[in-house]
Amino acid sequence: MIPRYLVDFDIQNLPQVHTDVMVIGAGIAGLFTAIKASERYKVLMVTKKSLLDSNTRYAQGGIAAVISDEDSPAYHREDTLVAGAGLCSPSSVDVLVHEGPDGVKDLIRMGTQFDLEDGEFALTKEGAHSQRRILHANGDATGAEIVRALSEKTKQDPNIQIWDDHFVIDLITENGVCYGALVQSPEGQKIFVKANATILCTGGAGQLFRYTTNPDIATGDGIAIAYRAGAFVQDVEFIQFHPTALCYPGAPRFLVSEAVRGEGAVLRNINGERFMERYHHQLELAPRDIVARAIVDEMEHTKSTFVYIDFTHESEETVKHRFPTIYEFCLNYGLDLSSDWIPVAPAAHYMMGGVKTDLYGETAVSRLFACGEVSSTGVHGANRLASNSLSEAIVFGRRILERIHQLTPLNHTPSVTGECLRTEHAKQPIVEKKLKLQKIMLRYAGLKRSAEGLEKGHEELKRQLSIFDSCLSKREEYEFANLLTCALLTTEAALIREESRGGHYREDFPEKNDLVWKKHTVFNREHGITEGRIDDV
């Protein structure tokens, strides 16, 4: 059993800090929501590294919103629902497609500079989009530009206090109400931060897998602490593997954006053959899960560890202008995007599921909200449509503020203790434990799954549960406990869902089964596993 709290403490004996709104995490969701909240409230932003460290920074493709006259919310809605493979919440998707353009205007007001062509926004098209609706910045550095603009604004805001290098160990709850969080300072001191509203913007869990486009900090903290606090966790079996991450000796799994294929790049196996026509009528622009599995099939058939992406039909000037970040990164490893075929392979990229919220970002725990990749709003269903993640963060960030405006101040301080009487310290080094977990997930819960593999993986993961009986005190120990929580939930959800849909593929159940499985898999620490109806948000 996963304990309620990771460490022993008595809240009465801890130093206390009070704030109106506590934002945990510093990607687009955290930065944007903090800035919006600071218009009326005192905000404390807690980030375990710094403002510039988040998944947002690595987002290349852009942000999807209906801007063009040729486009419409109805088109965007349809594309999102098709990609989501029957598990999207239509009401959440409606919110996204109708409120996305206003969110983009907010980003521009906050200083984000999107690329222009002839005075108009330079819109591009990505996989599974029927229209050009992707705004981008500096070619392929959209996330970095958004983080630059928002972090500058955050630092200048007198109503926002920033705690870098602080780790949120657990949320403090009493009778189903969130009162804030237990936070550890860089020096190891524990502090109770009491907040009228607590917003989780902690990102995803890419570090569950050995190969990921996510940074080291993506350890599923928000999902795990919300689960321990009593929130519902939904759809975590659906993990998106980006089809084209750089796969080259000595290089990290750097994202080669979907937009490269959107601009006409083709995929070839190591024999030089273009292969996507054997798998899908949309070829290289098929939904990500289909492209990723096709690449794995080709790798298996040709006994290779990669395939190639070929963008050599474009001029060097065009390649440099449109994809300067990718071009320069590849060049560091002696690869020229304009003249070389670039070796790529799938890597864990995005978690469609997360902490279940309503249409205003609130979880089942009162005063606890979730925004961005950590949340499960119902927008992404079984497979996220490219560039909808940044839109989702700003749309639901705006909505969370509407709900916070209705909250009355918290007058009561809970008398909470975390008493687990832990005595021993973790014996095996955490770095070894983490690598073992990542190998288990890659082998048994990756792109292709089966009951036999998932059962084996789940059993192997359960052997690591002793971490919860140990005295934890370091950030990497908390992170591993959180990763283990997410890994157990993910493998169990994948084992339960006996069908293939979106980012979840079962070799023993290769077909989608709407009759039985058009529903959500939902976990709760107290109530166990339940089911959620579509649109039950």
Provide a descriptive summary of the structure in words:
The model has no long low-confidence stretch (mean pLDDT 93). The chain has 14 helices and 23 strands. The longest helix has 22 residues. With 537 residues, the chain is α+β, with helices and mostly antiparallel strands. The two termini are 27 Å apart. Strands 2, 3, 9, 10, 11, 12 and 19 form a seven-stranded mixed sheet that branches. It is globular and about 65 Å long. Helix 1 packs parallel to helix 4, helix 3 packs across helix 10 and helix 11 packs parallel to helix 13. It has three domains: 276 residues, 3-Layer(bba) Sandwich (FAD/NAD(P)-binding domain); 110 residues, Succinate dehydrogenase/fumarate reductase flavoprotein, catalytic domain (Flavocytochrome C3, Chain A, domain 1, Alpha-Beta Complex), CATH 3.90.700.10; 97 residues, Fumarate reductase/succinate dehydrogenase flavoprotein-like, C-terminal domain (Methane Monooxygenase Hydroxylase, Chain G, domain 1).
